[in-house]
Design goal:
The complex is a heterotetramer, with two copies of chain A (241 residues) and two copies of chain B (305 residues). With 241 residues, chain A is α/β, with parallel strands linked by helices. Chain A is built from six helices and 16 strands. Chain A folds into three domains: 2-89, Elongation Factor Tu (Ef-tu), domain 3, CATH 2.40.30; 95-201, Nucleotide-binding domain of ferredoxin-NADP reductase (FNR) module (Rossmann fold); 204-241, Dihydroorotate dehydrogenase, electron transfer subunit (Dihydroorotate dehydrogenase B (pyrk subunit), domain 3), CATH 2.10.240. In chain A, strands 4-3-7-1-2-6-5 form a seven-stranded antiparallel beta sheet. The longest helix of chain A is centred in the middle third of the chain and has 12 residues, at 112-123. Chain B has 305 residues and is an alpha/beta fold. In chain B, helix 4 (148-159) links the parallel strand 7 (125-131) and strand 8 (166-169). The chains are: A alpha/beta (241), B alpha/beta (305). Chains in contact: A-B, B-C, C-D. The C-D interface holds C 25-28, 31-33, 35-36, 48, 56-57, 60-70, 72, 74, 77, 221-222, 270, 272-277 and D 1, 3, 40, 43-47, 70, 86, 204-208, 210-219, 224, 229. The complex binds flavin-adenine dinucleotide (FAD) (2 copies), flavin mononucleotide (2 copies) and FE2/S2 (inorganic) cluster (2 copies).
Chain lengths: 241, 305, 305, 241
């Protein structure tokens, strides 16, 4: 973990209320998708955690939804502006544990770490099956990029305006052997009911983001864990839903 | 920087190289910070509040932002006295060879006593800091620390089982902090730590529910600094034992101000969470600021205002 | 903006167009603000705290900045009851035809009674707001408002001499705000105003002296908001009479939050001093925010959290 | 009084720790020297009051000394930056009351409203005598401008490195009939002891700056007055030293 300064390269709305932020700065310590950064925003006391979607070559992308003061302030950043962030935080996906043919499942804005993960697994020849779910067609983003990955891709929309009608679970079509999942809590829980094993990106309200405050504790089968430091990626067997 | 600058302070016979101590609950048992800087630069460390039994803490969300600080209702999550003494303290002592401050909590006088006894026999512990901001389960759940009599009772009970200096950590959610501090002094306390968090609440107006699962929580950070300075000054006038001052400190200037109000040493809490290097930065800036203000010996300014 | 948005609220039978009331001591007698906007857009106005005798107030400096708010030790400077009733209130009534809130203070129960009597016969006054955060000169100078018994005594004495609604304005510098509010209700209070300022202190580290001549002063502004929300919520659970909530409110969002915590109306204090148009801005933004949050009738959200 | 936005044109150090700030924005309501503005500075709660030195044509100058957080933040402003300020505040010098030949006395950084006042009185043909006092030669600023006014000018320095050695009172050389004074409190008091009548620019710690809070009260011979609203210029006869 370092406290780095990041310069905004691009900050564009990619779906209603959802932004893609491209920043330049130190990404040298990032190890794998699922890690996150904790952003200092002027005028707010606590930092705001955001998953790292893409990284490499001194550039990172973040995809965020505007839900309150902090994300609203983020949405006003312009190219050339800069901010401090602690980077990287948390443990990402345990890539070596992921078997070939695993399902990578993402829901809504939270889907993004899946993209980078899919690329890595593809490059390792592990041929993952990607499932992404959205409410409706207009909310889908990064669809082109996902398609261009060349891996098996299923899109689900709640209203059926694109791909399978329904949730990602409907798109799973039965019980999966191994899943890697990012998305809202209820979605992850539903996926877990249809998978034998896997890794899940748990959400939590955080203060420090680096393990000092016990603000983000989740009770697991191996006792209380800090989502920020011991996660945010947890093994299915450890999670108590 | 002049060679004559002296940042050392003494708490009940224990000399600290400088007055900077991370506050309990915001520094864990030091592991995360030891990866960022050498913990031996610190005056001391007050580690995570320890209770007899292991505790999972309160429901989440249990932290929240509020403009000038944060709310927490962590609820004393800790691995329990046995694990702390057997594992955490020895590990922390590896990382930091200074006399440590053991922050203990309890839900009955007996629990405080049990913790104090164990800390008394743990070598790395230099000072026992008794957090009385806990509900007394034997007295209808009212907070120990809001009652001078109960606070004094805990003080006496703890003093009886340890020869180490005992500092009572007071809650600011009281009408008359000075009289509670005085009761501690009269009961034999070696020092006073203050302030713990102010009780606060925030509401998520979209979801129409409190931001904390626990409804209310402890408010800390810069927004409580004026209250903390006031209480340290009031307690300074009421007692002769040393004070460890805290509440919103985020800069070397804040440290000087808290010491001028009456603190012999200070603790840094929430600031560690937003800037994990803050204690190191303050320790580096202190001598420069002292020079600028014409302070040669830091301990000279304690309570001068 | 939909026609169906209803921002009105009712305090003890007095209907306000909206819940926004400038807080006592931060709005003078309205003159300065009347040059900036029409005071009739306000729900009401709580004017400068009035005492029987004219008062020059405390020594200066008596205001100071602190990051998330300010300190003041103005010390109830006012032209005295006679001048307020004969000159200030009629002038204010020219500028604002709403029922006004008369904020009164005293240093003995008799002084409160004298003020209340005079306000009772002043037509523009709709509500009498009794500020109990004053030293009781007959009881060693301790603050009336920190004692439930004394607060109840004032409440009874004031109620006996007026038929207008009496709101007791509580100090937050107490261990148990709910029990003091309950004592007021039991003594006949029609409502509760809270919070007054938190006692705070800041030190000028260069000059090595307190920033206020009076050493300590009242802390107000955004930094006290979490404490104010908490106390309003606690009092809401303890009493059935209406609450006027205040402490750090600076936006329409803050107003909604304070009302969800339990306030029927709100007061805006320090924010007027840094942005003299703030009450107008909030009044304009409230209906828009209500629409966004799906609130049709503002009074529906009082205490829903 | 309006809440205006001002753009920084120039912000230069003119003596050690003393800055001259030139800003562009609404100056239409300013009536006379001695009035002030109250500046909102990011990250500070209360505004910071500053006397208006020069004004006209949509430009204003402020001269300030760095003494704390607010003035330190001001000193970092660069051309193109902007801030909000309440403007104008207070009553300036009562120009009609000032007789011909009055002494205009300024001390240190506080001297500046005197400059504009001198120009106005000169233009009205009232031939003022300007006295400015500083600690030492290096601290003198605006000396050229004062000289160019063409009015009678006496400079005093404590160390005698320029002009009369001593305080402005030493430069007064006896008792004055009428003075207009800006400067530190002790200097003003000393001048008052050597003048029959005059106007003084009183200092005070302020919160609102527009008369609402009673934070800045001074007790005068006509009762308690608000320095911000009833002053900051007061008549000598009213002041209790
Ligand atoms: C490890 C981690 C990674 C994250 N990655 C992303 C990401 O890639 N993209 C993204 O859009 N968001 C992400 N989030 C969530 C993001 O941090 C919050 O949305 C953000 O902090 C909200 O800040 P705010 O000031 O805008 O909202 P606030 O004003 O603080 O709150 C607005 C609303 O959002 C809710 N909220 C606030 N924080 C959280 C949270 N941590 N989780 C759930 N709800 C919350 C509040 O209850 C409230 O209703 C992540 C969170 C964590 C812990
Ligand atoms: C009507 C008026 C006009 C003013 N005009 C000017 C001007 O033209 N140029 C200029 O340099 N200054 C002027 N001042 C003073 C200026 O407002 C203060 O220096 C400034 O507010 C300090 O802010 P700060 O945050 O830098 O200092 P702080 O951090 O608030 O305080 C730093 C130090 O300055 C002292 N201080 C703070 N405010 C004042 C004050 N109002 N008066 C005296 N001492 C103070 C404090 O006690 C402390 O020691 C004026 C003040 C008033 C009331
Ligand atoms: C997340 C968190 C956890 C805390 N846990 C404890 C604790 O276990 N024991 C204790 O005595 N104080 C605890 N505190 C209080 C702090 O030690 C400190 O007294 C308080 O936060 C005020 O200081 P600050 O404003 O610098 O944070 C905690 C504070 C925070 C923010
Ligand atoms: C300068 C100043 C003067 C005040 N004077 C009074 C007063 O005369 N009577 C009173 O009841 N409260 C007084 N108060 C308290 C406010 O009315 C209010 O309760 C408090 O400031 C909290 O609200 P705020 O944070 O919005 O300012 C004063 C506050 C300030 C800042
Ligand atoms: S957020 Fe602090 S421990 Fe996880
Ligand atoms: S500063 Fe508020 S009245 Fe003068």
């Amino acid at each position: 973990m370092k406290d780095n300064r990041y310069e905004v390269i691009k900050n564009e709305m990619i779906a209603p209320g959802t932004f893609l932020l491209t920043i330049a700065g130190d990404d040298s310590e990032i190890k794998c998708p699922g890690q996150f950064i904790n952003i200092k925003i002027d005028g707010l006391y606590l930092r705001r955690p955001m998953s790292i979607c893409e990284y490499g070559g001194g550039r990172m992308t973040i995809i965020y939804k505007v839900v309150g003061k902090g994300t609203d302030a983020l949405s006003k950043l312009q190219a050339g502006d800069s901010f401090d962030a602690l980077c990287p935080l948390g443990n990402g996906f345990m890539i070596d544990d992921i078997p070939a043919g695993a399902m990578l499942i993402g829901g809504g804005a939270g889907a993004m770490p899946i993209y980078k993960l899919a690329r890595i697994l593809r490059d390792e020849g592990k041929d993952p099956h990607v499932i992404i779910g959205f409410n409706r067609k207009e909310e889908i983003f990064f669809a082109e990029e996902f398609k261009n990955l060349g891996t098996r891709l299923t899109v689900a929309t709640m209203d059926g305006s694109e791909g399978v009608k329904g949730t990602v679970v409907d798109a799973m079509d039965g019980t999966a052997d191994y899943v890697c999942v990012c998305g809202p809590d209820p979605m992850m829980k539903a996926v877990a009911e249809h998978s034998k094993d896997g890794q899940f990106d748990l959400g939590a309200r955080m203060a420090c983001g680096f393990g000092a405050c016990m603000g983000c504790t989740v009770i697991t089968n191996s006792g209380p864990k800090r989502v920020c430091k011991d996660g945010p990626i947890f093994k299915q067997a450890d999670i108590i839903w | 920087m002049s060679n004559m600058i002296d940042t050392s302070v003494t708490l009940s016979g224990i000399k600290l190289d400088n007055p900077i101590i991370p506050a309990s609950g915001t520094f864990g048992f030091g592991k995360e910070f030891a990866q960022l800087y050498d913990l031996n630069i610190l005056g001391s460390i007050s580690f995570k509040g320890t209770t007899v039994e292991a505790r999972d803490g309160n429901k989440t969300p249990r932290v929240a932002d509020c403009q000038a600080g944060m709310l927490n209702s962590v609820g004393l999550q800790n691995p329990g006295l046995e694990a702390v003494v057997a594992e955490e303290i020895p590990q922390l002592a590896e990382l930091c060879s200074k006399p440590l401050i053991a922050n203990i909590s309890g839900f009955s006088v007996e629990e405080f006593v049990t913790c104090a006894k164990a800390m008394d026999s743990s070598d790395p512990v230099g000072i026992i800091e008794v957090n009385v901001s806990c509900p007394n389960v034997h007295a209808g759940g009212a907070n120990f620390g809001t009652d001078a009599g109960q606070t004094a009772e805990i003080t006496k009970a703890v003093k009886a089982v340890t020869s180490k200096p005992v500092y009572i950590k007071l809650t600011p959610n009281v009408t008359d902090i000075a009289s509670i501090a005085k009761a501690c002094e009269d009961a034999g306390a070696d020092g006073i730590s203050l302030i713990n968090t102010l009780l606060g609440m925030r509401i998520d107006i979209k979801r129409r529910q409190p931001v904390l699962a626990n409804r209310m929580g402890g408010y800390s950070g810069p927004g409580i600094f004026p209250v903390a300075v006031r209480m340290v000054s009031q307690v300074r006038e009421a007692v002769d034992i040393p004070i460890i001052g805290m509440g919103g400190i985020s800069s070397a200037e804040d440290v000087i101000e808290m010491m001028m109000a009456g603190a012999t040493a200070v603790q840094i809490g929430a600031a560690n969470l937003v800037d994990p290097w803050i204690c190191k930065t303050i320790i580096e800036e202190l001598p420069l600021l002292m020079e600028k203000l014409g302070i040669e010996k830091l301990s000279d300014i304690v309570g001068i205002v």
